[in-house]
Amino acid sequence: MDHYRLQQLFQEAANPLRAQAMSAYMRNQFPYLGIKSPERKTLQKPFLIKTARPDIAEIDTILRELWLWPEREYKYFALDLLTKYTKQWQPSHLRLFEFMVLQESWWDTVDLIASKLMGSFFKLYPQQIEASTQQWLTSGNMWLQRSCLLYQLTYKSETDTKRLAYFIAQLQPSDEFFLNKASGWALRQYSKTDPEWVRHFVSNTTLSPMAVKEGTRLLGK
Q1: Coiled-coil stretches, from where to where (predicted)?
Q2: Architecture of domain 107-220
């Protein structure tokens, strides 16, 4: 894959005024090129077809380079690219996902890394769940901790409720907005599968008001 050609196309489509607004939405933490999502997806589409995508053996090197390019649109492309490989992960790819979580961390990248990439990885390598998530949980890094809460977001009936309960109990109540929000999000998502489990858990666990509000939003509907 010629990712330098992609870089050229993105730079040609840059809109400085829009970039300022997009950066402001993210609290001016990251630079943008100013490419709206529909336009970006059109530009990157030829690079995502099967014949254009890099071999899985090249992914680690290419993604680390893409991830360090400053403008946020390159990270969004990188995430779209990685979702094409969810059944091909090798054990070493978890280190790549951790690298991505820890670089210029914010919800717009971390949530997809956790729910789509880490989630699919752990389905292939469940034997890595215990050691990896325990390391994240005790790391002191909010974004790795948030990943513990969100990697099962799409698991539905395959959710390991003992782990989910353990992660939430360890991280609740918290002074961190993003941990409270993620705890509630994980509970709300699982309430679509087993609302009674969520009701019982919320009633018997000390949670932040935000986690309770978010987690019970769908109950009774």
Answers
A1: none
A2: Alpha Horseshoe (1.25)
